[in-house]
Each structure stands twice: as structure tokens, then as C-alpha cells.
Request: fold
Amino acid sequence: MAGRQMTYLTDALMITCIVQASQAEKVVKAAQDVGAQGATVTYARGTGIRERMGLMGVAIDEQKEMIRIIVSQEQADRVFEAMYLAGDLDKPGMGIMFMNDLDRIATYIPDEIMAAAKKPAKKKPVKKPAAKKSGAKK
Reply:
């Protein structure tokens, strides 16, 4: 890769959430409201116990939306919780979600962001409390 550089991002996780059709928009909004940058939504068809619930053995076709969001370790818990609640995943048949560690991620990162990431964090000066004088009052 002459003249080109690949930068890997680490300490990231991917949250995958599978919900009923037409629910993805509110789940993605909830994730963005707590700091997620973006999401990928794809459409899928699910199978499972519901297909056995069809009338006279006829399978019920279940349309699903699959949401994938990459987040930092710092964001992971709050984004996961927000998505879970927005998708009503605490109710039967609403969906499932899970989180995976990502070994590395590669994408374009603007130079100014890379430069800022390489700079050591500026330390704020710590103010020391004024020393109290001890002794008898005059």
C-alpha cells in the first residue's frame, strides 16, 4: 500500500438487534439519542416458534428488521439499554439483541481527528486550598 495508510480502531463492539418490521426507526433513534453515531438496517425473515402457530399448519412469514450499530466500549451499555427499551424487547415475540467484541475496524478517519487523538490530554491545573494559619487569636 505505497503511500497509503490503514488505521485500525479497537475497543469497539457491535450491537445487533432484530425487531419486528417497522420498529427499527424508533430503536435507531433511541440509540442515537444516547450517543450512537449511525446504524445499518437490513430486512430479514425470521422463523421459529411463530411458524408453528399458523392456522392448520400454514407457516406464518415473519418480516424482521435487523439493526447493527458499532459503538465504543464506553457507549456500549447505555446504547444497548436504550435499544432494548425502545424495541420493547422485554415483551414476548418482540425481538432479540446481542453484542459482540470487534477485533479491529478500518475506515476513513479525517487527519484532524487522528491528530487530536494522538495529542496527550491537557491536564487542568489543580488548585490547592489556601493554607490555614494556626495559633491563638490576637
Notes: The chain has a mean pLDDT of 83.
